[in-house]
Amino acid sequence: MDRTDEIRDYPELRAAACPFSPPPGYEELRERSAVTRVRMWDGSTPFLVTGYHEARAVLGDSRFSADGTHKGMPRFTKFEVPAEVFNLGRMDDPEHARIRRMLTAHFTIRRTEAMRPMIQGIVDGLLDRLIAEGPPADLVADFAFPLPSQVIAVMLGVSDADFAEFQRASQGVMDFTVSTEEMGAALGVMVDYVSRMCAAKRAAPGDDLLSRLIVDQELTGGLTQQQVVATALVLLLAGHETTANMIALSSVLLLRHPEQLARLRADPGLMPNAVDELLRYITIVQEGTGRVAAEDVEVGGVQIPAGEGLIINLPSANRDPHFADAHELDLGRPNAREHIGFGFGVHQCLGQTLARVELQIALETLLRRLPALRLEVPLDDLAFLYESMNFGVARVPVAW
Ligand code: HEM
Asked: What is the ipTM of this complex?
């Protein structure tokens, strides 16, 4: 039931005593009413969905729209993404499906598996440098952050000569501590950079994702020039910070669970399942999963009137009793892969296979090459990013 007299403020943050768990208030809500109204900073009162089955029901139902221009869409930040910004994650089928089809061929299991040697090379290169420079090191700046941006740079076809500029521009848009004006300016720099890259590919196409989008779509009228730039930007933004945060947080979590770490070391074949369990347990995408009811729909016994917004809280859904002993980290969990840390339904993460492979290689190599890896500071002193859209950690000082 929707008890408007008890509307709670949104968002609640994860508790510093238990940073890997969802906000304790959401757990309480899930037990009481997994679909309930909350009040946002702008005074709006969308529904918050905290249960696993309810979250899947919303994300898997085309009567809920992801259209970012919809009036009822929850506004997570004051930073207004201009309406003309073209974003796969914020549009509905059939247009969404049309664009997604242009990209899926680049993210298939086969294509991604073939990228393993390239990814392994990048991981080894980063660790070679980290080891050569000696302890201490910052696992975020020296390992977790550069890895996904180098991988996506290879996929998009960024030349080695351009990589430093590419990385500077992409870091500008990743810094969530900056003001909205600074964020807008950083986005502008990135758009300029990607636009120039597109112009170069137009003149001399290669065999990379960006060249393919230009040759197969832009030149045949499937996408405008602006849409190609926006799509490249979405891939970069969606895949960089998320994967980086998962690598850093997974490393911290494993170091905090020596018995699970020992299990993984003893059985490297456990890695694919372990990565899914880490994705479930941490669930970094903690904000930003919003939808709007396009018609009246009932979810979890609650009537959602047409035009109302919903926020789907993935961290809480992934700790639902659907998972036995949901608060235990169990790298061998039989149904770990049922988590919805990559979302669910038509918008389910396009890059999930790539993210899984990056995580598997990064963690396997890190643990193998640095068997004595340890945190240099107590967990309490780590700068966790409680308030950002994606949960993360700013620095992870380590030694070995
Ligand atoms: C969508 C999580 C890595 C590209 C999503 C969604 C989630 C997610 C939860 C769905 C959001 C929604 O339904 O509103 C993650 C996590 C990652 C990760 C946890 C890393 C651990 C990547 C990578 C790429 C990528 C590496 C690509 C290079 C995308 C795109 C979408 C998406 C394009 C939008 C898909 C659509 O709307 O059809 N991701 N992601 N992600 N992700 Fe990821």
From this structure: 0.99
